[in-house]
Amino acid sequence: MKTRILEKDSKTIKLLIEDTSLAFVNAIRRLAISDVPTLAIDEVAFLDNTSVLYDEIIAHRLGLIPLTTDLEHYKSSEECEGADPITNPECYVRLFLDVEAKEDGTVIYSGDLKSEDPAVKPVYDNIPIVVLAKGQKLTFEAYARLGRGKEHIKWSPVTVSAHKYVPVLKINFEKCDLCGKCVKACPKDVLEIKNDKLIIKNIFSCTLCRACEEVCEPQAIKVSWAEDSFILTIESTGALPPEKIVYEAAKILWKKADEMEKLIEELSEGE
Fold first, then answer.
1. Rounded CA gap, 147 and 46, in Å?
2. Which end of the chain is more exposed for a tag (fewer CB within 10 A), N or C?
3. DSSP calls for 235-268
């Protein structure tokens, strides 16, 4: 198997994975959504709330705020099952808020949350939590813990986790009359006529829509895909770097495969 980074920034990574199976790439995709752990607010203790929103609604909104996650510092949800949020700092991180509106229409944002751990904070400071009228108060303590997307989507580290086949575009230059219809029809600007020749600018942008193939009257273009090559796109919520999500998903898959191998060996020995 060969892997190459096609694109990468602070939130997104796009990988070209070759000489592998659809099952493997899809397993990484699914594990990125459901099994890679992140921190999210799970319990909220309200001390004062005179806003127009019920405690439950505010707690729900707090849970959906993505938090920067330190996987090395905090224990997993399995290790912390039943742990007291106050007396177990290795399992929970405390965030708190204590505000009183000085004027009508005061918006309380995610950036107003204060965290006991500087490494754990809202990824974005501009997520609205509630709007307060003058004199209204909101005071609470919130406790975030590690969890997984299969438990609740608020723990999923990705906003996009998708794969597609690597496109294969074949051009018969003997049939091509350079009419330019395929260039205009392509929604991703994959094709270009340059130096009296039809060329492919970026094959990885192709979505396999076959619009170019459909408008080509001489039938000079054939669109297909490679059976053993895929493009995996991971877009992070910001809780974890995208490359960390791929790494953790691969590590989880390896562990699951190892556990399955041991179970098969045990069953074989039993027979």
1. 22
2. C
3. EE-SSS-HHHHHHHHHHHHHHHHHHHHHHHHHHH
Sheet of strand 137-147: strand arrangement: 38-49, 137-147, 92-100, 114-115
How many structural domains are present in the chain?
Answer: 2
For residues 13 and 7, is the Cβ–Cβ distance under 8 A?
A: yes
Q: Which amino acid is at 107?
A: V
CB atoms within 10 A of CB 221: 20
Question: pLDDT tens, 124-157?
Answer: 999 999 999 999 999 999 999 999 999 999 999 9
Q: Is 41 helix (H, G, I), strand (E, B) or coil?
A: strand
The Cα–Cα gap between 239 and 223 comes to: 38
Q: Which amino acid makes up residue 32?
A: A
Residue-range definition of the domain harbouring residue 178: 2-34+159-233
Q: Is 244 among the domain residues?
A: no
Spell out a b/e string for 63-84, using b for 16 or more CB atoms within 10 Å of the CB, else e: bebbbbbeeeebeebeebeeee
Look at residue 230 and tell me whether its pLDDT is greater than 70: yes
Cα(180)–Cα(193) distance, rounded to whole angstroms?
7
Domain-embedded: residue 269: no
